[in-house]
Structures are given as structure tokens and as C-alpha cells.
């Protein structure tokens, strides 16, 4: 679209010169010789930038700049100052001017300044639209998203939240499984009772049993007093077992019995203590494969997997990446007191192109880093990590129209299977479902690929 410039200068000959030059460069130009007329024009029409002289009768350029900044802060103002008048230029910037040019005006320089001002306005409009979208976007507690998969997820969560049913949350690392568990708790009738979470992969086996079930004084060397387990601590509320696929096989029978009987016996104790908890578990592992391999008990798997919630990876959520990025920009800018309002267009495009192996957690860290490092209000590409700056989207190439370049079917099949596995986070059960194969067939093909490799 043609950029629209409003020129304000009481020198008519200067106005004509500027109008002629800017029109030749593709700008749409409107001229006024008084600030009052310019304000009336600005009230009824849209302009991308205002170019004003400072020395004018009645309402001067500084006052005009202040009025525009107050009434139309979305329109940048560029002021023309006398050569060498640095104090005046500083006063203009303080009044809210976007930039200034010195007289006599160098037309090439003026054109570049106006183009930058127009781009600045366009970017501000995009940031505002994105901020509005974040404010109005679909949410489920702390979860944010507008993609079809996230809307479907919100619907699933709304239906299951206020039930007593055990839920298994499945998804890659960093997709927000604990956020989902917390959201389920907040939307349940148990919300006023404890929400207790534990990462089963982060605690050694010897301590995990005591954490879950508690212990009696003297049960082991450091047991100097009775300690209630997490089942008791969460009584009346929700117990979230994160990374449940990492619970040692030897501990799984005891966990199953506790869930079945709704009682837990502390380590070193001789009495069962009843509890009332809603169980929510999560894993980034393929538990069906673990069951088949004998690494996870089938009866425990069926006990925790009454309802399964599948979290999509960030790379499959489309422009949700930008909604989340803007949300994190506003969050970290407010927390750190930085005047950062959004992303540059180039940075936004790189975020869209990147594959996000670390999912939402990685995006959050990237934005926190960028807000801390940037010196401007729109995060540029240079403030993103190198692996994101230099990332180039790649697509699966299945061949070409040149018969000499076409690949054998077995090569295409292998490459596509490997592509689907990578896209599903190496979840073989999910990959088999996408490929339309049963898991045993997929395992057989993968073993064949391994045997073929030198």
C-alpha cells in the first residue's frame, strides 16, 4: 500500500518541493501550511506519518507534536529543525517525535527517515493486534492457544475437569503437562484442597517410596520422625505424578495397590492410612511400548489411563507460537521493567519457522533471554539464540520429476517412517497410528532399518 504523509509547514514553497519529491518516490502526500488545519485533517483521515516544521505561527511544531502524540499516538511525527539546533531536536524527541531531520533537508535522508517511521507504525499496529489477540485468545486457566488442536484440547479438558476420573497426560517434554494438571485441579470441585505434584524421575528409588507413602520414625537411618506421604498431603485434592513412566518396576505394584484400595501404608508402618485424592499422571514416554517390553505393568497402565489427554507439540500449533511469544514478552517485560512490546517481523518469522524441539518451555526461555538482552522495543532477530537465527525449515523430499532422480519405494518408505517418528517425538505408538500400521509391524520395519545400517 502507498504510504500516506501529512506535511505541515508555513513555507508554501518548501511544501511544494517536498510534495513533488515524495510523490516521485511513491508516497501519497497531503500538505497544510498551518498546524490547526493539519489537526483537523488528521482527525478525519488516516496518515502513516506526519512531517512538520518547528517554527510556525500560532501553534508551533512542538505543540503540534504533543497534540498528535496525545490524540493519535499511533501516528509517528518527524520534525524538521534548523541546522545545528541540537537542543531543539532534543526538545522534539522529548515531546514524543519519532525522529528529526535538519534543514536544509537532504531529500534522500528524509525519504529514509519517513520509510522507517512508516515501518515503525506498521510494526506497532501488528504488535497491538497481537496483544489484543493474546488478551482475547482461547484460554483454559494458564493454557493459551487458538489452533484447532488447542481448541479441541480445551473442550476435552472442560468435559473431564470436574470428574473424579484418573487422567493420563501424554506429550513431549516442555509441552505444559503440569499446567494441564493444574488447570484440571482449578476447574474441579477439589480446587480448594491441595494440589500436590512430584516428578517421579527426579527422586531416587529409595526416597520415592517414602515420598509417596510417608514413613514412620525409625523406618530407616534418617527417619527421626513420622512423615506423611504425598497421598496423605494431597488428601481431598489432586495428586500429580509427573514422569510416571520412570517409576521403578519394583515400586509399581505398591502404587497400584494404593490406587485400588485408596489406602497407603507408610514405610515402617503396620497400618493402612486411607486417602481421598484425584490422580493425574503425565509422561513423555510411550507407555504402551513400555508395557510390551515389560518395563511398565499393564494393570497399572490401565488403572492410570482411564482418560488420556494428548498434548500437541508446539511445532504443530501454527501461529500459536506468536501468541505465546507475545504473552511471554509482556510477562517478562513487566517483571523486569523493560520497555519491550513485541517482536520484529523478521524475528516473528524465525520463530514460526523453527521446529521447537523443547516446545513451550524452550520458547519461554528464548523470549526471557531476548527481553533481557534487547536494547530496542521490538525484539530483533539478532537477539534470538544462534540456532534459531540460523535455522532453515527443511521439508521431506520424496523425489522430483526427473526419472533419474527418483528414489526406490523402500528408500521413500524408510525416509517417511523416520520423518513421522521425528514429528511424533519418537513416540512409536503415535507414529504407528499415523502411519496406519500396528506397532509390531512398525517395530519390525525399524529393526530392519537397523539391520541394514552398517
Verbal overview:
With 454 residues, the protein is α/β, with parallel strands linked by helices. It folds into four domains: 4-125, Rossmann fold, CATH 3.40.50.2300; 139-310, Rossmann fold, CATH 3.40.50.300; 328-389, Orthogonal Bundle (Helicase, Ruva Protein, domain 3), CATH 1.10.8.60; 403-452, Orthogonal Bundle (Arc Repressor Mutant, subunit A). Helix content is 47%, strand content 15%. α13 packs across α15. It is elongated and about 95 Å long. The model is unreliable at 395-400 (pLDDT under 50).
Task: Reconstruct the topology from this structure.
Layout: E1 4-8, H1 12-24, E2 28-32, H2 35-44, E3 49-53, H3 61-71, E4 77-82, H4 86-94, E5 99-103, H5 107-136, E6 139-140, E7 143-144, H6 148-160, E8 167-170, H7 177-186, E9 195-199, H8 205-213, E10 214-215, E11 227-228, H9 230-233, E12 238-242, H10 252-261, E13 263-264, E14 273-274, E15 278-283, H11 287-292, H12 298-304, E16 307-310, H13 320-336, E17 342-343, H14 345-353, H15 359-373, E18 378-379, H16 386-389, H17 409-423, H18 428-435, H19 439-452
Parallel strand pairs: 1-2, 1-3, 3-4, 4-5, 8-15, 8-16, 9-12, 12-15, 17-18
Antiparallel strand pairs: 6-7, 10-11, 13-14
Helix pairs in contact: 5-13, 13-15, 17-18, 18-19
Amino acid at each position: 500500500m502507498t504510504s500516506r504523509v501529512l506535511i505541515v509547514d508555513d513555507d508554501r514553497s518548501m511544501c511544494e518541493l517536498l510534495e513533488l519529491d515524495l510523490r516521485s518516490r511513491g508516497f501519497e502526500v497531503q500538505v497544510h501550511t498551518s498546524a490547526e488545519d493539519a489537526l483537523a485533517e488528521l482527525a478525519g483521515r488516516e496518515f502513516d506519518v506526519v512531517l512538520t516544521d518547528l517554527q510556525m505561527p500560532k501553534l508551533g511544531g512542538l505543540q503540534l507534536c504533543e497534540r498528535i502524540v496525545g490524540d493519535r499516538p499511533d501516528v509517528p511525527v518527524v520534525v524538521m529543525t534548523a541546522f545545528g539546533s541540537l537542543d531543539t531536536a532534543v526538545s522534539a524527541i522529548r515531546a514524543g517525535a519519532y525522529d528529526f531531520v535538519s534543514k536544509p533537508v537532504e531529500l534522500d535522508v528524509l525519504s529514509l527517515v519517513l520509510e522507517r517511521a512508516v515501518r515503525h507504525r506498521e510494526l506497532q499496529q501488528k504488535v497491538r493486534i497481537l496483544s489484543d489477540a493474546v488478551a482475547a485468545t482461547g484460554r483454559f486457566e494458564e493454557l493459551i492457544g487458538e489452533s484447532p488442536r488447542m481448541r479441541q484440547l480445551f473442550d476435552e479438558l472442560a468435559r473431564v475437569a470436574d470428574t473424579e476420573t484418573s487422567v493420563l497426560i501424554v506429550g513431549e517434554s516442555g509441552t505444559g503437562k503440569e499446567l494441564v494438571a493444574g488447570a484440571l485441579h482449578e476447574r474441579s470441585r477439589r480446587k480448594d484442597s491441595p494440589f500436590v505434584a512430584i516428578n517421579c524421575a527426579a527422586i531416587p528409588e529409595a526416597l520415592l517410596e517414602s515420598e509417596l507413602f510417608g514413613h514412620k520414625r525409625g523406618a530407616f537411618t534418617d527417619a527421626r520422625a513420622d512423615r506423611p506421604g504425598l497421598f496423605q498431603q494431597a488428601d481431598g485434592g489432586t495428586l500429580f505424578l509427573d514422569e510416571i513412566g520412570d517409576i521403578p518396576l519394583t515400586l509399581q505394584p505398591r502404587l497400584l495397590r494404593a490406587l485400588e484400595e485408596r489406602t497407603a501404608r507408610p514405610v515402617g508402618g503396620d497400618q493402612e492410612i486411607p486417602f481421598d485424592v484425584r490422580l493425574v499422571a503425565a509422561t513423555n514416554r510411550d507407555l504402551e511400548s513400555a508395557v510390551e517390553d515389560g518395563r511398565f505393568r499393564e494393570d497399572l497402565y490401565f488403572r492410570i489411563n482411564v482418560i488420556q489427554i494428548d498434548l500437541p507439540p508446539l511445532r504443530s500449533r501454527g501461529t500459536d507460537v506468536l501468541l505465546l511469544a507475545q504473552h511471554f514478552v509482556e510477562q517478562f517485560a513487566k517483571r523486569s521493567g523493560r520497555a519491550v512490546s513485541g517482536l520484529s517481523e523478521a524475528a516473528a518469522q524465525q520463530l514460526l519457522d523453527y521446529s521447537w524441539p523443547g516446545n513451550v518451555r524452550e520458547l519461554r526461555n528464548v523470549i526471557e533471554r531476548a527481553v533481557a538482552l534487547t536494547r530496542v522495543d521490538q525484539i530483533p532477530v539478532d537477539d534470538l539464540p544462534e540456532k534459531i537465527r540460523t535455522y532453515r525449515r527443511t521439508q521431506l523430499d520424496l523425489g522430483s520429476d526427473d526419472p533419474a532422480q527418483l528414489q526406490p519405494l523402500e528408500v521413500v518408505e524408510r525416509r517417511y517412517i523416520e520423518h513421522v517418528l521425528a514429528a511424533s517425538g519418537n513416540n512409536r505408538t503415535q507414529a504407528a497410528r499415523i502411519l496406519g500400521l500396528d506397532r509390531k509391524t512398525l517395530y519390525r520395519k525399524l529393526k530392519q532399518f537397523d539391520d541394514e545400517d552398517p
